[in-house]
Give the backbone structure.
Amino acid sequence: MSFPTLGLMPELVRAVEEKGYTVPTPIQAGTIPAILTGRDVLAGAQTGTGKTAAFVLPILQLLNQDSGARPRVAPRALVLTPTRELAAQIADNAAGYGRFLALRTAVVFGGVGVKPQIDQLRRGCDLLIATPGRLLDLSEQRVLDLSQVRCFVLDEADRMLDMGFIPAIRRVLKLLPAERQNMMFSATYSQDIRTLAQRILRDPVTVEVASRNATAERVTQCLYRVPKENKRHLLAHLIQDGNWQQVLVFTRTKHGANRLAKQLEGAGIATAAIHGNKSQNARVRALEDFKSVRITALVATEVAARGLDIKELPHVVNYELPNVPEDYVHRIGRTARAGASGSAVSLVASDEEPLLRDIERLLKRSISVAPLPAFPILNTPEGDSGAERSGADGARPDRRPRSTPQDSRRRPGNRGGHSGGAQGSPPHRRGESPARPAAGGPNRGADAHRSHSRQDRRGDRGDRGAGPTATGRNDSGWRRA
Ligand code: AMP
């Protein structure tokens, strides 16, 4: 299978070859020929499968074929996508794929000034990528004419629904001509998605790549059972002890993301937070810093991280488990893109057991429980005294003065100043070597883990709150050794 055999024109083949793509991904092989023949498409694919090229490449070809001599102002193809980051990424990709064609791409999303976007639209575009809110604003201001749209893509449809965009989508649909080709991409198929598909699509070709858990199969997954208040200390330890260079950390709330970023900074780990309350500039800067490994940790909420295209991300951490089990699969899929493998670590507090059960049910398997290593309790900002009373759950109090975040920003070999020394030895069982995660982080070596059975979980819950462990080698994190 090659790009020319899918029916793509030489200019597009050349552009993807220059990007280093040699073989189409399954979603591309499935959708590109169908879209080129004018069919509607319903595609089950999540970020990381190459889904952007799967719709952008054939759309560019159709737009190019349909380019008359008259000057074009109004867009003829519209991609609706839930987040600004995703919109910007699709636009970047479209510019790259279309570099040998004389087509114009524009992108509009909220959170930034509207004036440059208006100017851009007035100059005209062939392909428009947009988030719903700003699109509707611009349409209401009459600076955007959607009457020429012949190709409509609803990207990340499931996320659109989760984010409450359904009324906005309905309003957008009313602005489009009835006669058009439609494509819908969704990582999951709920009943709501099916209903939406029936409303939008006409006799669609359905393309589903692997199962939605396929990505999860390529990711080394494990979990640590750890009380809430010790999560941040364990995370700092995992990053520093495993010498992680790039880790995406998911928190449940924006406030939680800010707080954790501050705490990790305090532990000497260069960190930024990314979420909806941050300005677009701050988000772009954080993402750039993260991609270029100027910072080690990016702490993100689900929505903000959605669709971020970060290549070869080695580590993802669920600081809190997501409420929606499918989000777990999305999150960990960030590490295993384009065939790469990665590690996903979840920090699970006792009240997250039901969420864990839902996730394991979706995965149809249990996630390995990694032995809890000994880790220091660092006196970082907003330290909570409860956690620092004792070396609970493998944790060890460490009240030594810390170097400034600037000084101790972790570089290879720099453990943030909390290793070694008499005080630096983690607690351990007599006759046993100090507890450490398996070399290279917690995911090396299946024998470092033990299977996480229902029985184990019941036992752990029963003993919850039993107090500090003596050894720091306790798998459950809250059971006395
Ligand atoms: P997406 O699912 O569209 O976010 O794409 C995920 C990543 O895969 C992006 O970094 C793309 O540049 C890359 N990609 C897309 N198609 C291919 C391909 N055929 N071969 C290699 N990489 C690809």
Notes: Residues 51-65 form the longest helix (15 residues). Residues 383-481 have pLDDT under 50 and may be disordered. Residues 21, 23-25, 28, 47-53, 309, 311, 337-338 surround adenosine monophosphate (CB under 6 Å).
